[in-house]
Amino acid sequence: HSRGRNPARDIFASTFYSHPLKASGWECVQRAWQRMWDQHPALKVTLKDLVADNQRVATRTEMVGFADGSTATMLEMFTFENDRIVELWGLSDKPQTTS
Predict the structure, then answer these.
(1) I need a surface site. Which of 3, 11, 24, 78 has the fewest CB within 10 A?
(2) How far is CA 64 from the centre of its chain?
(3) If you write DSSP's letter for every residue of 6-36 in order, what string do you get?
(4) Are strands 12-18 and 84-92 parallel, antiparallel or unpaired?
(5) Could you read off the pLDDT of 8-67 as tens digits, one per residue?
(6) C-beta separation of 95 from 70 below 8 A
(7) What are residue 23's phi and psi, to 5 degrees?
(8) What pLDDT, on a 0 to 100 scale, did the predictor assign at position 7?
(9) Phi (first) and psi of residue 10, to 5 degrees
(10) Is the pLDDT score of 3 beyond 50?
(11) What structural domains and CATH numbers belong to the chain?
(12) Which residue, among 75, 99, 72, has the nearest Cα to 89 in the 3D structure?
């Protein structure tokens, strides 16, 4: 990244499609995360589980630091071809207020 190159270009295929965002191209993921960080600057994402099998990787992450004190869990499934992410499926629960 210090060379002015966006590292996302190296992990996403040119044919990448995000089912949750209903959009193509790595830029859609970058824009979605940028909006999230802009709205919740204290947000922290922690990888809790990762399972890989052939050309698929599934992750479970926990997100804390929402402005309202809530947390969320996100599940994502990535499909790879030629060492690049070509497809993303994902869902997250609605933020839950912490006690």
Answers:
(1) 3
(2) 14
(3) -THHHHEEEEEEETTTTEESHHHHHHHHHHH
(4) parallel
(5) 778 999 999 999 999 999 999 989 889 988 999 999 999 999 999 999 999 999 999 998
(6) yes
(7) -150, 155
(8) 77
(9) -85, -15
(10) no
(11) 8-97 (3.10.450.50)
(12) 75
